[in-house]
């Protein structure tokens, strides 16, 4: 496969999100690919809405992007030591789409946070939430960028050699899983 499709999913909607910066670095480390970023700006999951109107178009689009991707990278901050509402909501919606879009999808999860654990606790929760979706979560060293405000320069580039090394290893493994 010469040019795989890589879908990036950011658990923060914030424009200046450190997790989005980390995903850009992940993209670069992954190498040549058709890359697109998921839009998690979705309505809140509501069973009544689903019953009345069906799955929203934005969710169908997202689910199709997951299905079509060769590989997925998720980077999310933790909020209060847990998964962000934005990411949980998206995963809940995706789980309502026929055909299990995440099933066997090679996926790497990472996090960046202001705190000193880099979102490790929240990342465990993301991994846990991916379990019923049957994503093929690749094993490897956890990448948890701590004190994220100090680890990216003004252009959004990750400057810490250790994190860059872990990221390269994780992305090499992801690429190997899809090529
Ligand atoms: C609601 C909320 C909860 C947060 N909880 C945590 C936390 O549990 N651990 C932590 O390290 N930082 C926490 N933070 C700070 C985030 O790490 C920081 O805002 C970070 O920049 C968010 O990621 P982003 O840059 O990708 O948006 C929290 C921030 C918000 C807004």
TrEMBL record:
Gene Ontology terms: cellular component: cytosol
Residue stretches in coiled coil: none
InterPro entries recorded: Flavoprotein-like_sf (IPR029039), FMN_Rdtase-like_dom (IPR005025), NAD(P)H-dep_reductase (IPR050712)
Domain NADPH-dependent FMN reductase-like: 5-143
Domain of life of the source: Bacteria
One family name in Pfam for this protein: FMN_red
PANTHER family in the record: CHROMATE REDUCTASE, NAD(P)H-DEPENDENT FMN REDUCTASE LOT6
One GO molecular-function entry: FMN binding
Protein name: Chromate reductase
SUPFAM superfamilies xrefs: Flavoproteins
């Amino acid at each position: 496969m010469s040019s795989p499709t890589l879908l990036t999913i950011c658990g923060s909607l914030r424009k200046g999100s450190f997790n989005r910066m980390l995903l850009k670095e992940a993209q670069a480390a992954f190498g040549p690919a058709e890359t697109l970023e998921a839009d998690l700006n979705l309505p809140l999951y509501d069973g009544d809405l689903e019953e009345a109107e069906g799955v929203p178009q934005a969710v169908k689009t997202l689910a199709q992007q997951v299905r079509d991707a060769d590989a997925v990278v998720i980077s999310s901050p933790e909020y209060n030591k847990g998964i962000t509402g934005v990411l949980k909501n998206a995963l809940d919606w995706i789980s309502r789409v026929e055909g299990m879009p995440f099933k066997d999808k090679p996926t790497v999860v990472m996090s960046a946070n202001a705190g000193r654990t880099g979102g490790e606790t929240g990342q465990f929760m993301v991994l846990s939430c991916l379990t019923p979706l049957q994503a093929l979560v690749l094993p490897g060293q956890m990448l948890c960028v701590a004190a994220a405000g100090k680890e990216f320069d003004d252009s959004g580039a990750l400057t810490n050699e250790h994190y860059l090394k872990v990221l390269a290893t994780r992305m090499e493994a992801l690429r190997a899983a899809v090529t």
